[in-house]
Fold this sequence. Notes:
Elements: H1 10-15, H2 36-45, H3 48-52, H4 55-68, E1 74-75, H5 82-89, E2 91-94, E3 98-101, H6 108-113, H7 123-136, E4 142-147, H8 149-158, H9 166-174, H10 176-200, E5 204-209, H11 219-233, E6 238-239, E7 242-243, E8 246-250, H12 257-261, E9 267-269, H13 276-283, E10 288-293, H14 302-316, E11 324-328, H15 338-354
Coproporphyrinogen III binds next to strand 3 and strand 4.
Amino acid sequence: MSFPSLKNDVFIRSLLRQPVPYTPLWLMRQAGRYLPEYNQTRARAGSFMGLAQNPEYACEVTLQPLERFDLDAAILFSDILTVPHAMGLGLDFVAGEGPQFARPVRTEADVSALRVPDLSELRYVFDAVSLIRKELDGKVPLIGFAGSPFTVACYMVEGQGSDDYRLIKGMLYSRPDLLHRILEINTQATIAYLNAQIQAGAQAVMVFDSWGGVLADGLFQQFSLAYTRKVVEGLVRENDGQRVPVIVFTKGGGLWLEDIADSGCDAMGVDWTVNLAKARRRIEDRVALQGNLDPMALFGTEDAIRTEARRVIDDFGPVGLGGHVFNLGHGISRFTPPEAVGILVDEVHSYSRRNH
Ligand code: CP3
């Protein structure tokens, strides 16, 4: 497939640690409920899945934050749970309660029945990727994504979000063989899913390990990172003559930066508990860094937003050689005032240009 050439490649350059004129930024969950126009489209679609499974709607909401803000990347509008949905688990987003599966995976029989889904079940995602690429017309790069095998397994076993991860950890400590089997299937599914997104036009991909950080040291490496590494190893890293950078984000991964940096990724996403200067020293600049403003800083005064943004940029250090993509340390809150995002984007761009 061929698409218009890229007008703003600062995000890709920074991920590859090449010189940049300023620090690029995008925000996790930049298309979401803090934007009134998102809520309007979602109402028209009828439900979250109605939105995600319709390429025209998915394209529309992907582009919404870019119309308001001067962001340096777009991220596919979809969800990490489309993959287990395609495995037949029956995903539903219950208003106010988040995602739920009708058929969670808990017993030996459930695990035996689990299969890598046919990619045709996820066709709507790849169609959305190609449509978004076309509509972006080369304005900024498009990021594709998936959950890590462990993070997706959390939802598959728990059946929904969890405070204590009792069911999946119960499985880990009683039948680790069953959990390894789920993780292996998720890994194969995720490789195929991300490669198909790349094939359809995704110019960078991100693996969200949102819940790896709930595991004990040692078990994180064994049950989460080992599978994320397999995913990274299985990805096509070049498309259309362009390198496709891979970002691995582990929320709560601050203890394991060295291990994560060795996963084969080009860039590591870090949450707000990490200091970027210390992180760079620990990983000796082997990979680029993405992050890491506390999403709640967007509830501060304009001054505080600007000060905190500068702090993140200064912690990383000189801008010009690339290697830093500004982001939040986790997804933007649905209660964020959109004006706060405008202030953040302005500060990151203007301050990093001045301190270039
Ligand atoms: O970043 C973006 O703008 C792209 C879209 C995106 C969504 N989900 C849309 C979404 C991305 C990258 C995700 C990833 C995702 N989904 C993760 C990993 C990132 C993270 O936040 O740690 C996880 C854990 C999920 C699972 C998920 N999907 C949950 C827990 C929820 C409920 C969250 C909530 O705040 O209620 C969702 C739903 C969801 N996915 C929403 C959006 C915009 C809100 C749903 C709505 O409109 O009702």
